[in-house]
Every structure is written in structure tokens, then in C-alpha cells.
Design a protein that fits this description.
Helices cover 80% and strands 0% of the residues. The protein has 14 helices and no strands.
Length: 302
């Protein structure tokens, strides 16, 4: 019993560290994009993450598992690597480049709902009334944010940026759906995806612009993103999920992240947080809770 309590406490600590770190990265995206291009930021962040994941693989002695994974699943690894990190972060950083941080990060938070919708045709999941209602509430929240509190006007601050932010939710959801087709150690899987994506990211960089020495401030931001958006934070989250007695207790902590992120955006980026952003974010969270309502009821019955 004492061990269970201790493990649960450690689980919460790991999860809260992960949530805290993920809450900081939206601000770092925007700050880094002030001195780096999208191509540069993607390249240096993915390079950092690939190196860190390689070190983790070597420390944990997972090299043979990586080789076996490539031997058995190379086609899916290529698909996953193209989706994430290649496409996901090119689209995401471009959205952050075009939009205020508070808009981009909040819209991106709807990916969990998109995952549900894409699971219907791709995984054969049955649609529920709660999914439809959740979509209406969530995407009305997106509309409130994108029109700065005037949804009936349909006057978007940057329609292309909003489109890219929503497109990242599709790419991210497809990534997790294809992940269900592979049973592999998560660290092995993630490192393999980054290993495949790294050459693609490099080609994208040199195709988009000349290779130049990056600004030091921007480079520090890219390294931070590679560490705390893409790799190390993932390890904290994995530890939390491994130690917990109830996945839902940990998973629900992720709802803290976008609200905490708004605080960092205000103090680090200097953006004035609009009431429309807070209202839209609350609507999105309510929508996601509606989506999960059938799971909550099931747990109560059990």
C-alpha cells in the first residue's frame, strides 16, 4: 500500500514537470521565430531532439530494438517520421509565425477532438452524440479566438494561420492513429521517427534558404524546444504513465497546460491576453470534457 502511494506521488511529480515544461514551449516558439526562420527552427530543434534521443537509446541499451524495429516496420516508420516531426513542426512553427501565440497554441489544443473524428473512418470507431456536441463547442471556441471575440463577423485575424494551426491537429492525430499499428518501446519508436525525419528536415532547410550560422538567441530557443518539447519532457510523461494507478488521473492534468501557457505568453512574449482567448479556451476545454463524458460515466459505474 505504501509503495502504491509513493508511486502515485512520483507519478504526479513527473506529470506536473512535463505539463510545466510543455506550457513554456509556445512562448519559446514565438521568441525563437523572432530571429530564426521556420526552416532554421525546425532543423535545429529536430537535430537537438535526435541527438538527445540517441543518447537515451544508448544509455538504455535499446540499439538492437531500434534495428529490429526498422527491420519489421520500416514503411510505417517512414510514414510516422514524415508526419512527426517533419510535417507537424513545419506547419506548427509557420502557424506560430503568422498568429499571436495565444491563438496558435489554443487552437492546436483541439487535436484530441480531431483524433476522435479521424478514428471513426480510420480505426472503425463508432461516433457518439457527445463527439458531435463536443465538436460544436470546441470549434465555436476556435471561432471566438480566431475572430477575437466577434464570431458572427467571420473576420479572421489571419485565416491562413488559423488553417495551418487546425491542419497541425490533423497531422498530429494521424501520427497517433498510425502509432496504434505498431507495438514498440515508445523511446525506440520516437527515436526511429526522428532518425527518418532528420534528412528530410535538412533537405527542406537547404531548399528553402542558404545555410547560415544561426542567431545565438534563436539557437538557444531551438535547443530548448528540442529538449523540452520533443524529447526529455516525453520521458517525464512516460514515467508518469508507468507509475500511476489510474491513467485518467494523469491524462487530465494536461488541461492545466494551455492555461499555464497563457501566463508564460503574457510575461515572456509580452502579449496582452485577450478575453476572447480565455473564453475560447474555456469552450474548448468544456468541449473536450463533453467528449470524454462517456468515459467518466463508465469509471463512476465501475
Amino acid at each position: 500500500m505504501q509503495n502504491h502511494v509513493k508511486n502515485q506521488r512520483l507519478s504526479y511529480i513527473n506529470a506536473l514537470i512535463a505539463v510545466f515544461l510543455w506550457s513554456t514551449v509556445a512562448s519559446v516558439f514565438k521568441i525563437s521565430l523572432q530571429t530564426l526562420s521556420v526552416a532554421q527552427l525546425v532543423f535545429y530543434a529536430v537535430l537537438t531532439s535526435t541527438i538527445v534521443l540517441l543518447i537515451i537509446v544508448l544509455i538504455k541499451k535499446l540499439s538492437n530494438e531500434v534495428i529490429e524495429h526498422f527491420r519489421n516496420n520500416y514503411k510505417l516508420i517512414i510514414i510516422l517520421g514524415v508526419l512527426n516531426p517533419f510535417l507537424e513542426y513545419i506547419l506548427l512553427f509557420k502557424a506560430y509565425d503568422l498568429l499571436p501565440v495565444q491563438e496558435a497554441q489554443t487552437i492546436n489544443f483541439t487535436w484530441a477532438l480531431m483524433l476522435t473524428y479521424l478514428s471513426i473512418p480510420l480505426l472503425g470507431h463508432k461516433p457518439k452524440l457527445s463527439d458531435l456536441l463536443a465538436g460544436l463547442v470546441c470549434y465555436f471556441g476556435v471561432l471566438v479566438i480566431a475572430t477575437k471575440g466577434n464570431p458572427l463577423s467571420l473576420d479572421f485575424s489571419n485565416l491562413y494561420g488559423v488553417f495551418l494551426a487546425l491542419l497541425t491537429t490533423v497531422v498530429w492525430s494521424l501520427y497517433w492513429i498510425y502509432n496504434t499499428k505498431i507495438n514498440v518501446n515508445p523511446v525506440v519508436g520516437l527515436f526511429s521517427n526522428f532518425l527518418v525525419a532528420m534528412p528530410l528536415v535538412f533537405v527542406y532547410y537547404i531548399y528553402m534558404e542558404d545555410f547560415v550560422m544561426p542567431d545565438l538567441k534563436g539557437l538557444r530557443g531551438a535547443v530548448y524546444i528540442g529538449l523540452f518539447e520533443m524529447s526529455i519532457t516525453f520521458m517525464f510523461w512516460l514515467n508518469a504513465m508507468k507509475l500511476t494507478q489510474s491513467t485518467s488521473k494523469i491524462a487530465n492534468l494536461i488541461f492545466i497546460a494551455p492555461f499555464l501557457s497563457l501566463i508564460f505568453i503574457y510575461f515572456l512574449v509580452g502579449e496582452k491576453i485577450l478575453l476572447a482567448t480565455i473564453v475560447g479556451l474555456v469552450l474548448i476545454v468544456i468541449g473536450l470534457l463533453i467528449q470524454q463524458s462517456h468515459l467518466i460515466k463508465k469509471k463512476i459505474k465501475n
